Amino acid sequence: MVIEFSKYQGLGNDFILIDNRHFAEPLITPEQAIKMCDRHFGIGADGVIFALPGQEDTEYTMRIYNSDGSEPEMCGNGIRCLAKFIADLEGNSEVNKSYRIHTLAGVIIPKLETNGEVTVDMGKPQLAAAEIPTTLDSVGDKVVAQPLEVADRTWSVTAVSMGNPHCITFVEDSEAIALEQIGPLFEHHSAFPQRTNTEFIQVVKSDYIKMRVWERGAGITLACGTGACASVVAGVLNDKCDRSCTVELPGGCLQINWSSADDKVYMTGPANEVFKGKY
Question: Phi and psi dihedrals of 179, rounded to 5?
């Protein structure tokens, strides 16, 4: 079967987008997604995203397979790319257009901005250990600055869910972290029964942080939208950064705001088409 696709990227976090509007299940299998994501023998991507029919009161449903074939609950950079992809499918050039999208993490609402970027209402962060999930101890109802033994070192970590699990630790120099070595040890740590994304955060100033990420199921990526959101939440919980913050990732910057008015996290950043093709 020949599959038509579009390739999009958000800050270098790249995805294969497939028009799946006429079928309730993804058109390809996780095993096929692995082959498509291969950067030497396939198209090359961090994941495959499907635009499926909406459920209940939503217009579309988002499903995603990571490059290792696993299925995450949500993807922040991915849903910005999906919003642009949907607008292209509809032939919609309307600015300030928003979509209600069903995901495994709940209903997410991206909005197309006049400057070409996309702002996403990411919902409220989940902070209870059982929600993340993690077996780490909690202080009150939050897992903040808890010790975690990884690679013969004790790390102070904060756990946050943005619909998917994140483990955040603050470091003096994010560039000094050997991600390819330490990342898998965090991802598969027994304290995270559903594995975890891991963010290493360097605080430059209260409204500007640098982030490197090891993504669950994808490894080292140039950006992670949910990770940027979770990191700002963790920064606020640890009194290290403001609620409104620029997050610098290897692929570029995201603007994150954890609103004190409604407790929701809002993410703003780019998403761009790279090319179309058939596979």
Answer: -55, -45
Please state the φ and ψ torsions of residue 189, each to the nearest 5 degrees.
-65, 140
CA–CA distance from 174 to each of 150, 154, 163, 168, 203 (Å)?
17, 17, 25, 12, 9
Q: What percent of the chain has pLDDT over 70?
A: 100
Residue 248: both structure tokens together = 């610098």
pLDDT band at 154 (very low <50, low <70, confident <90, very high): very high
Rg (CA), the chain: 18
CATH number listed for the domain at residues 4-122+270-278 = 3.10.310.10
Tell me the CATH class for 146-263: alpha beta
pLDDT band of residue 94 (cuts 50, 70, 90) is confident
DSSP 259-277: -TTT--EEEEE--EEEEEE
Q: Please list the active-site residues.
A: 75, 224
CB within 8 Å of 205: residues ≥ 6 apart: none
Instruction: Confirm if 80 and 120 have CB atoms less than 8 A apart.
Output: yes
Consecutive H or E run containing 147: strand 146-150
DSSP-assigned beta bridge partners for residue 156: 147
Pairing of strands 244-249, 252-258: antiparallel
pTM equals 0.92
In this predicted model, what pLDDT tens digit does every residue of 123-149 receive, in sequence order?
999 999 999 999 999 888 899 999 999
What is the location of CATH 3.10.310.10 in the chain? 4-122+270-278, 146-263
